[in-house]
Specification:
This protein is an alpha+beta fold. Helices cover 17% and strands 53% of the residues. The protein contains 3 helices and 10 strands.
């Protein structure tokens, strides 16, 4: 994926529910968020309007592959390792509001996960959203603050590729044994030359 999956869901929900980028600013000049990745540094409940957070609750890696490759550019050979990670994530979306928006609109969030735009994002970023989701009413969780809160959870299949240059077969330490004397020697092979240590 070329983009964090949580950011993809921010874009999806904001567009499908026709929500603004933010609800303006509070008296201290802090932005009042609308749809965002969950963070402890962002203050919520500073507006009666709907606020939505997206987070990864857990993930399970079901494939972790390593591939080596080389590129030759102007007679210089460079070696790279590509690590491919396939994972099953549990995504959690929390919908909050002091008014009735969270109670009224949380089914819209579930509906947007199967929308045409959601399909387009899945094709573009090569991930898959599970078709079945659970919603839980957690409105009483915050005590007497009168916050309407609904939590939606669903599965999401993602893949990531991480690439870095390696000195694969260019420089490495090894040991060799002289069979006549039964003595081990440490040395480094660097660019096809033996360097004694």
């Amino acid at each position: 994926m070329q983009k964090e999956v949580e950011k993809i869901f921010v874009d999806l929900i904001q567009k499908e529910l026709n929500l603004p980028a933010n609800w303006g600013y509070d008296s201290q000049g802090n932005e009042i968020p609308c749809v965002m990745i969950k963070s402890q540094n962002i203050k919520l409940f500073n507006t009666p309007n709907i606020q939505i957070t997206i987070s990864t609750l857990r993930n399970r890696i079901f494939s972790n592959r390593l591939n080596h490759r080389q590129e030759v550019i102007q007679d210089v050979t460079k070696y790279y390792e590509d690590v491919y990670i396939n994972e099953d994530r549990t995504i959690q979306i929390d919908i909050y509001s002091k008014n009735n928006d969270a109670r009224i609109r949380y089914p819209e969030v579930q509906a947007c996960l199967g929308s045409t735009y959601a399909e387009q994002l899945q094709d573009k970023y090569q991930f898959r959203i599970g078709k079945i989701s659970d919603a839980v009413n957690l409105s009483g969780l915050d005590g007497g603050s009168e916050i309407n809160r609904y939590t939606i959870r669903f599965q999401c299949l993602c893949w990531n590729k991480y690439t870095k240059e390696v000195d694969y077969y260019q420089s490495f330490r090894t040991k060799a044994r002289d069979t006549n004397t039964d003595i081990f020697a440490d040395f480094t092979i660097e660019n096809n030359q033996i360097i004694n240590n």
